[in-house]
Fold this sequence. Notes:
By secondary structure, the chain is α/β, with parallel strands linked by helices. Helix content is 17%, strand content 33%. InterPro entries: Glyas_Bleomycin-R_OHBP_Dase, Glyas_Fos-R_dOase_dom, PhnB-like.
Amino acid sequence: MVTTAPTPYLHLPGTAREALDFYAGVFGGDVVAHTLEEFNRTDGPPDAIAHGQLGGGPVALCVADATGDQPAFRSEGMMLSLLGTADPATLREWFTALSEGGEVVDDLQRRPWGASDGRVIDRFGLLWLIGFEGEEPT
């Protein structure tokens, strides 16, 4: 995966493979995952993910299973923005999919200033801001 933009890299508590599959289901793209065994590492279960990535779609991210004394991902005061990154219908689909097993913080809705946006924390703890400008086609 070659990218010039910052790419989130999450250390998850044994759920890296599940996260990769989930995000690929939401956004599309290609999943590549390597286990600890493949990297000749012995600091966790052989089938744990040492490095996984989602690329080739509208969202790129990397994940690994936290091992040893590595802390698992948690976030406060940060969100990933998908404002205007796709058409309104696609953004609504992403919002709905990310909310499955997660928590809607603020529903995706029309705002007084004319834009639509909302926030959702997905099942892996990422806070997403999703929205678009202007009217939705009917």
